[in-house]
Backbone:
């Protein structure tokens, strides 16, 4: 029997191999399925960890954003209004911090306060000073200081807006005007002078901007001349019909009115072709104005730290304390977007 059994076993290697093949395949399939399931579980766990880490990261950014407080500067390009640029800045910061988010709608209300001081025309570029947090309260007092501009004027053409964006309303000869003629009249526009603001301006009548009323075609009377200060005024270049001015002035001064008045004083007319604000308060375009690719929470935090040394001691802000809990931070679903108007050149958005 043993021999027979041995014969069977030894004589059936093919049968034995054949029987083992499906068992091995089944085991491999089961192993593969188990490995796939394990990988799937690991992937889900990793995704959960990543999502959790992302939420923690966003919460940390939200905390940092709401703790920012002070004054810094951004570079405004030609095109958007100062208010539009401010909204773009705020949207980028909120998006980076993941705020607001639908999952936070039941959280306690928090407000991101941000504003700008010193309206810059949409056709102009340059330094725009921004206040964030408690820094919005500093704008009016700090920005009553000087501003500096490089303006390129065009002789021989007057426009309704006093710059190149408007309709030409008058043309006069300029061919006899010399560099000496321009330099000779600049002293009349230096020091404490009276200036009539442009009709297209942020100044208001009955609660509405004059520029808005003008665009509607409504009849608007010019505002009376008001006192302004020009600290320095020089001619940098003259290549008819274009002339370039370097102007340092106080608050409430309009470069467009200056260029127009210079044209009239020369028995011609003129409008602003290009305008760049190179300095506002202690902030300069080259050193302090953040370009749009630097509008991040970390970059602004660094800029606030750097710029705090530029402010007068009485206006310098102490570092804000971080929020006490994430519950307060994750509550920015109800951020208020309304604008309130303070003085002529200060807009705050909370």
Residues:
């Amino acid at each position: 029997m043993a021999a027979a059994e041995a014969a069977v076993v030894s004589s059936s290697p093919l049968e034995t191999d054949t029987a083992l093949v499906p068992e091995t395949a089944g085991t491999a399939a089961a192993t593969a399925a188990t490995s796939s399931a394990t990988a799937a579980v690991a992937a889900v766990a990793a995704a959960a960890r990543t999502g959790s880490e992302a939420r923690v990261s966003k919460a940390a950014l939200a905390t940092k954003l709401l703790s920012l407080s002070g004054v810094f500067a951004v570079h405004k390009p030609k095109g958007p209004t100062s208010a539009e640029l401010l909204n773009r800045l705020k949207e980028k910061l909120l998006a980076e911090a993941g705020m607001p988010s639908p999952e936070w709608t039941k959280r306690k209300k928090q407000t991101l306060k941000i504003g700008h001081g010193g309206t810059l025309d949409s056709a102009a570029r340059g330094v725009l000073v921004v206040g964030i947090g408690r820094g919005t309260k500093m704008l009016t007092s700090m920005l009553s200081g000087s501003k500096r501009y490089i303006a390129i004027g065009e002789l021989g053409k007057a426009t309704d807006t006093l710059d190149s964006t408007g309709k030409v309303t008058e043309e006069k000869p300029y061919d006899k005007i010399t560099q000496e003629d321009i330099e000779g009249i600049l002293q009349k526009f230096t020091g404490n002078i009276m200036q009539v603001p442009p009709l297209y301006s942020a100044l208001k009548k009955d609660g509405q901007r004059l520029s808005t009323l003008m665009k509607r075609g409504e009849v608007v009377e010019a505002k009376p001349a008001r006192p302004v200060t020009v600290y320095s005024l020089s001619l940098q270049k003259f290549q008819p019909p274009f002339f370039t001015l370097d102007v340092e002035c106080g608050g409430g001064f309009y470069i467009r009115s200056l260029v127009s008045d210079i044209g009239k004083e020369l028995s011609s007319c003129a409008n602003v072709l290009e305008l760049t604000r190179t300095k506002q308060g202690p902030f300069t375009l080259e050193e302090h104005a953040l370009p749009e690719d630097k509008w991040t929470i970390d970059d602004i935090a660094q800029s606030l730290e750097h710029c705090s040394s530029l402010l007068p001691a009485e206006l310098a802000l102490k570092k804000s304390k971080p929020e006490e809990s994430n519950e307060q931070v994750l509550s920015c679903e109800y951020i208020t977007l309304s604008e309130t108007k303070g003085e002529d050149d200060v807009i705050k958005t909370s």
Summary: The longest helix spans residues 13-67.
